[in-house]
Amino acid sequence: MAKQAREIRLKSRPVGMPEAANFEVVTVELKDPGPGEVLVRNGWMSVDPYMRGRMYDRPSYVPPFALGEALQGGAVGTVVKSNDPNFAAGDLVESNLGWREAFVSTGAPLTKLAGGVPPQAYLGVLGMPGMTAYTSFHRIGDPKPGNVVFVSGAGGAVGSTVCQIAKIRECTVVASAGSDEKLDWLKSVGVDEVVNYKKGNLLENVRKAAPKGIDIYFDNVGGEHLEVALEVARPWARFIECGMISVYNDKEPSPGPRNMPYIVGKRIKMQGFIVFDFIDMREQFITEMTQWVKDGRIKWQETIENGIENAPKAFLTLFSGGNAGKMLVKLD
Amino acid sequence: MAKQAREIRLKSRPVGMPEAANFEVVTVELKDPGPGEVLVRNGWMSVDPYMRGRMYDRPSYVPPFALGEALQGGAVGTVVKSNDPNFAAGDLVESNLGWREAFVSTGAPLTKLAGGVPPQAYLGVLGMPGMTAYTSFHRIGDPKPGNVVFVSGAGGAVGSTVCQIAKIRECTVVASAGSDEKLDWLKSVGVDEVVNYKKGNLLENVRKAAPKGIDIYFDNVGGEHLEVALEVARPWARFIECGMISVYNDKEPSPGPRNMPYIVGKRIKMQGFIVFDFIDMREQFITEMTQWVKDGRIKWQETIENGIENAPKAFLTLFSGGNAGKMLVKLD
């Protein structure tokens, strides 16, 4: 293990769409781990859409990233040297100290992982995206067999997991994504109807795919999709508001849906959440999802960039829709 | 009792703001009540914002009003003659057959009223508006002592009741209405802070009135108020979506709030409802509200038009904000 490691820092706050110039690669010296500290070499790091929010300097549920400091995010790594009795060299661990090749843990939460699945699964279906999908779909969506579920951003890590959980729960699933390749994969894992939002009129296409309307909308994108979902919603529909990637990079706030009064008339419940709100479901999630993965009932796709220097590129890919499934950066 | 009675029919569907020409007064012959039928003379009828929705010819939770037929709505009347063993002459009854001076009930639901309060209270605090306020505030709003509650359209029948229930539940109440007279009355019944939405910048004024933000938003108006509520909402705020009167008469759909992503980031729950959804709370509502009325803990204002011919005028008043409290038409 070199005594140096590279990390990605936020050089300037993006205005609108982030670009490579907002980031910089910096090489830092790693000190030896002191008493109670652990040296970890990251093997995989995650890039996720929510990170865009932390690049704004504004109050939110997590503090903004600081300029000139390394970014943060999910990472899976291996313990190189440990002065903490809870960890030993060779342990597989998860942390929120991604965006760097290695780090000395000085009190930041570090979770030992069971293994038995590919390590990067802990950043996907068995990690934050999987838990986001699992907890909110059950807690807010309240799915019933026969419900029609509409998922936007269905090609991504969260969306593709929601689609498959909804099938396990005996729902009819309509998925929207921006490429036929993503949609073909979704069909291959059991999705009933697919809509390419880049082709033709979104409302007409969703109406065709869900002629009887929808009971649950899992929203990853906001914007036009949200308006369409309000339009086709059945009475008492549940809208799981996971993200609105379509507007994250707006320089000026975009107007919301023109059909908001449907919330009243159709008695819609629209609810936002953060995955940590459902932390009480963590054990249930891990148990059930691990079984589904082992049984081959939940599958996933990965899009991988290699090397810390390509982490900003991987992050930008999320907003062009270039990733199929979980977007990852392989660091070792 | 004359054998004739006047009724108000929908002559044409309003485009945008309704006007007098959309309605007509027609005199009809009343047949004698047959076996099992009841002749009722209405004493009071209600006009409510939701009726605007039924004037559109579109699918909704209730069928649209038919052109050339009498409108419908809450009414309190007295039984004149009864061939139904459940009713006797002189009984005070509630029906959905307002917009007419008298009617022969042929199977339409008729509810005998207990009395002991002014009869028109059954169209207000003890009727549909009161039940709308009571049920949704508790079921969706989930109020806790110390919560800050923001009520738009607070001068109306529903809004003014919500304000007082919120005070009983030990919340801090910020009320918005369009006239200082309405706001003075609201302060007189215990509302903590008031905002006249016609004066100055709404967002700034609400921020001043609720410097720590809001936990519950009771929405009667939609539009700019909804955007402001999203802006000042605290994490986990509950939005009770009762109505959006500000957009009911739009000829073209208006854009929604520009800050919809707050639903995600602040984990807001926004939920629409119809009073019938909470019918299981009816007994609890009647019991508690009757007590509050008798104890003087819930007060109300009325704005009264006299004579069936003025019912359309009373209805139009709802959209100009000309009513203080419950808008009623006195028919006898």
TrEMBL record, chains A, B:
InterPro entries: ADH-like_C, ADH_N_2, ER, GroES-like_sf, MDR_fam, NAD(P)-bd_dom_sf. Its EC number is 1.-.-.-. Residues 16-329 form the Enoyl reductase (ER) domain. Keywords: Oxidoreductase. The keyword Oxidoreductase applies. It is an enzyme of class 1 (oxidoreductase). The keyword Chloroplast does not apply. SMART domains: PKS_ER (SM00829). One of its GO terms (molecular function) is oxidoreductase activity, acting on the CH-CH group of donors, NAD or NADP as acceptor. It holds the Pfam family ADH_N_2. It comes from the Bacteria. This is NADP-dependent oxidoreductase YfmJ. It comes from Terricaulis silvestris.
